[in-house]
Amino acid sequence: MATVSGSAIGDYIDHESLIAGGTTSGNDTVYGDRYTIGSSEQIAEYNPGLSGGGDSIYGNAGADLIYGQYGNDTIYGDADITSLLGGNDTLYGGAGNDELHGGEGNDLLEGGAGADLIFGGVGFDTVSYAFSNGAVTVDLSVTNGSANRGGDAQGDTISETEALVGSAFGDSLVGGTASTTIDGGAGDDRISGKDVGDRLLGGDGNDTIEGNGGNDTLDGGAGNDSLLGGAGDDSLVGGIGNDTLDGGAGNDRVDYSAVGSAITVTMGATGGGTVTGGAGTDSLAGIETVIGGSGNDVFTGPIGTAGAVAYTFDGGGGNDTMSGGSGGDRLFGGADNDWLSYAGATGPVTVAIAVGTSSFAFGAAGNDTLFGFENVLGSGGADSIRGSTSANTLDGGAGADTIVGFGGGDWILGGAGNDSLLGRTTSTDTANDTIDGGADNDALWGAAGDDSLLGGAGDDTIYGESGSDRLYGNDGKDLLDGGSGADLIVGGLGIDSVSYGTSFGAVVVNLSVANGSANTGAALGDTIQDIEVLVGSGYGDTLVGGAVSVTIDGNAGQDSILGGALGDLLLGGSGLDTIHGNGGADTIDGGAENDSILGGDGNDSLLGGIGSDVLIGGSGNDTLDGGADDDRVFGSAGNDSLLGGAGTDTLDYAGAPGGVSVNLDTGTAGDGRGGTDRISGFERFVLTAGNDTFVSGAGNDSVDLGGGNDSLRWDAGDGNDTINLGLGNDTLDLEGWTGGANDLWSTVAGAGGATLFINGRSGGPDTLTVFGFDPTNDAVTCFAEGTRIATARGEVPVEQLRAGDLVVTLHGSAPLRPLVWVGRTQVDLSRQRDLTKAAPVLIRAGALAEGVPFRDLRVSPEHALFLDGRLVPARLLVNGSTIVQELWRREVTYFHVELEQHGLVVSEGAATETYFDDGNRHLFDNAKVVALAMDFAAMRGNGRYAAAACAPVLEEGDPLLERIRGRIAARIPVTADRMQA
Fold first, then answer.
1. Is-contact 318 296, C-beta < 8 A?
2. How many whole angstroms separate alpha carbon 852 and alpha carbon 907?
3. How much is the pTM?
4. Could you count the other beta carbons within 10 Å of the beta carbon of residue 632?
5. Where are the strands (E) in 53-112, listed by range?
6. Which helix (H) or strand (E) holds 378?
7. Which of 200, 405, 450, 736 is a Cys-bridge partner for 423, taking CB atoms 3.0 to 4.6 Å apart?
8. What integer pLDDT is reported at residue 4 of this predicted model?
9. 739 with 760: CB under 8 angstroms?
10. Residue 706 half-sphere exposure, CB side, CA atoms within 13 Å?
């Protein structure tokens, strides 16, 4: 046998017996009875001019392509029968009864026509009938080949192969006893596996594929195929066409991962279902797992069916929507933005999704295990839904749902039902959430980010928490609390409330400033629109109404509340509140504790509530009710209805410009301003400095007549009454008084401190006229005329102030408080026995401190200034230089101002005390010259002032007083120089 080495350019070799060898790799063409191909990747092929001969062809270590063609050929992929050097060979027997040996490597063997012996050898070998001119029937489980027939398979014996390829016709292909891959190719094939786990491919055509036992993989390919997995855990791929896929026994799946368009999967309770979209409409049976493709797929399980199969759905790529069944499913959203839906559940569900790990759902839809979902749609029941740390869309659907975003900029939808929607689990979540309550009455909470919260229809409660949030109540009666940060708060339709109840400090909110620039505290930067109710914090707030009617609730704390131009409802809540109705017909309720209430313009309704309140009606026909405890009521102008309520209440007309007429028998009073009031429930009465008329009634009454020539008629009574005649020539008429000898006493105190005890007995008409009492033992603290007081409208001379004016205060938390009374008295100093007790004290500008006072200040000797935390009477500061007493004056007019309680105001820049009611109100006649002796110090000895004053009172001998005097003395050169300048 000769050996010829081929070259690299392709050789033509003609010999009967030769070996084509060498190491070059050209494509050699060999003709002869016996030849061997050496080198790798060679081709042995026939001469078309020859037609016979039984050839023996040997490959070598490479991947050979060998054609035996005509004759009964023997072809080896290896170099010889015993060689183990074969590569991945392709062997074609051609016509004749051939013998093909694949040898080592993954070989492809096609016997061609004739009864062939086909041995795959070592490796993964494939027997192919792809070039058969007709359909074949091949059963790899019958080793003698007796079951093989038709086309090129007729008489073939096949062994040691792992794969089978059919023809382009309708084949019948059966796998072997070992795991086999069968590809039917074109044509309507019938393919069957054995019980060993086969891979069965239908190819083109309408194929019927049966896996039988084992864990098989079935792929129908193109055409309308029928796939039956049989026993075992099978994987079925329908491919193109309308396929029927039956997994059979075991845990089977259908796989649409190769589909690029959207599919819709609908599964029943027992593993059956349909799949539409993609490349056809498939009918499923016996399936437990469905794998989607890269499109936006929809998966629906049998929710609401008891005993349903527990499915596994895998969405793959795309934005999928997945709804499991009732059997406890495993649901994989896959890549992209996927939805988990429980819209079909018959009851509530609990769902939690997470990033990068498994999560869960349980409830009416079974106990599901979840992976890779970004969005959730709840059921029609009361669901509990928790998002992940990434951005989610969470929709509760109908029902009273609880939804928590957990983190990451979520969109949360409550849907119908009374929902609780939270954008976070901690207040430090800074992502920006959008939360929509939907229909019904919802509660919404933002987080630390800049959130958007929409109440929707229904009565919603919305909390922005921290961050610059946007809160929209929309329809319904909503409560909106922006929390900290510059928020936009829009109530929308309905009666909506903005609340600062969660604030950790006092707020200032002014609804009359549309852009929110006047708001401070937790309200700093807030813009408030379409709001009907304003609720303050638990601290001392300043709350101001706007151009439309609103309700303002001060909540707890010492609040200052000012209504708007129209009629408002103003509620003080707990705390020492100051409330001014301003314009319109207001309804004002002071609430608990001691409040100061001024109605302002319009026909107002004022209720003091619990506590010792001060009520001032203002102009208009007002209704004032003191409520519980000891209240002080000022009707002011208009035809008012005045009710004292429980406790010892005072009806005060001292500020009226003219005399008043009070008749307790008829329950009416002429108010000195042209109006007629209806009165009841009062125990104490303070009349004016004018000529008043008073008719008593039942009970323990006390009347303070003030100045003027007053007339009192004291009718039959059943209590112990007190009358303070005050100044002027007063008349007391006892004609109707018929009290018993021992059970009724009436005390009449004259202006000079004299006391008359009148033993009440029946008898003839008695007339008592009292006048000319010496007021030596009375003392007051006053401002001299012209002193300017700091008010809400700037500095105003004290003589121009009126009850109801808001003045700047330095005690408590309310920066502005209304005056309840302004007194005036004119003193003829020429008639004073001791001028040091009545003449004004002049405090030069800058005498107390730099710029304090900033103009000369004149006060009565006993008037106290607030220095170093103490009240210091002006007489104790006289130094003959910068603080002097004007003993040379002949006359002085004093004024004083009263708040609801003793306090501090700012006069000429200095902190000074207000009027302290110690029974001396009658000294302020508001009209006449008092030509009587005045002692402004005597009253301080009774102890009432020191006990109830707004600060401790400093007295002579206290070391602190000496330090204050020393500090003032050190300023004398500076102050004196300025006086000379």
1. yes
2. 10
3. 0.67
4. 25
5. 56-58, 65-67, 74-76, 90-92, 99-101, 108-110
6. none
7. 405
8. 39
9. yes
10. 29
Say if CB 23 and CB 45 are below 8 A apart. Answer: no
**What backbone phi and psi angles, to 5 degrees, belong to 559?**
-95, 155
Question: Could you tell me what percent of the chain has a pLDDT over 90?
Answer: 67
Sorted by sequence, the CB contacts under 8 Å of residue 49 that are 6+ apart come out as none
330: amino acid identity, one letter? R
**Total residue length of the chain:** 981
Give me Rg for the CA atoms of the chain.
53
What does pLDDT average to over the chain? 84
CA–CA gap between residue 459 and residue 67 (Å, rounded): 86
Two tokens, residue 698: 């039942």
What confidence category does residue 31 fall into, taking pLDDT thresholds of 50, 70 and 90?
Answer: very low
For residue 961, report the phi and psi dihedrals to the nearest 5 degrees. -60, -40
Q: From CA 651, how far away is CA 687, in angstroms rounded? A: 8
Q: Is residue 488 a contact partner of residue 506, using CB atoms and an 8 Å limit?
A: no
The alpha carbon of residue 563 and the mean position of all alpha carbons in its chain are separated, in whole angstroms, by 29
CB 58 within 8 A of CB 37: yes
Cα separation of 290 and 683, whole Å? 88
Q: Which residue has the higher pLDDT, 944 or 782?
A: 782
Q: 370 Cβ partners below 8 Å, 6+ apart?
A: 331, 333, 340, 351, 352, 353, 358, 359, 360, 361
Read off the tokens for 727: 């100044």
- The half-sphere exposure of 604 on its side-chain side, counting CA atoms within 13 A, is 38
CB 707 within 8 A of CB 726: yes
Query: Looking at this protein, which amino acid is placed at residue 667?
Result: G
SS3 109: strand
Q: What would the two tokens of residue 223 be?
A: 């055409």
206-257 residue pLDDT tens: 999 999 999 999 999 999 999 999 999 999 999 999 999 999 999 999 999 9
* Domain layout of the chain by residue ranges: 783-976
DSSP letter at 657? S
What local confidence, expressed as pLDDT, does residue 71 receive?
Answer: 61
Contact of 898 with 920, CB cutoff 8 Å: no
Instruction: Give the whole-angstrom CA distance, residue 587 versus residue 620.
Output: 13
Whether the CB-CB separation of 386 and 352 falls below 8 Å is answered with: yes
Rounded Cα gap, residues 247 and 327, in angstroms: 18
| AA identity, residue 338 | D
Angle at 954 between CA 958 and CA 962, to 5 degrees: 40
Residue of 691, 728, 914, 709 lying closest to 811 (CA atoms)? 914
Bridge partners of 865, per DSSP, are: 872, 912
Asked if 605 and 654 count as a contact pair (C-beta separation under 8 A), the reply is no
DSSP state of 470: E
DSSP 155: T
What contacts 24+ positions apart, CB below 8 Å, involve 20-26? 20/44
DSSP string, 249-294: SSS-EEE-TT--S-EEEEE-TTS-EEEEETTS-EEEES--EEE--S
How far is Cα 361 from Cα 417, in angstroms, rounded to an integer? 21
Q: Any idea which fold 783-976 has?
A: Endonuclease - Pi-scei; Chain A, domain 1 (2.170.16)
Residues whose CB falls within 8 Å of the CB of residue 708, separated by 6 or more in sequence, listed in order: 659, 687, 688, 689, 690, 691, 692, 726, 727, 728, 925, 927, 928
Neighbours of 142 (CB within 10 A): 14
d(CA 362, CA 751): 87
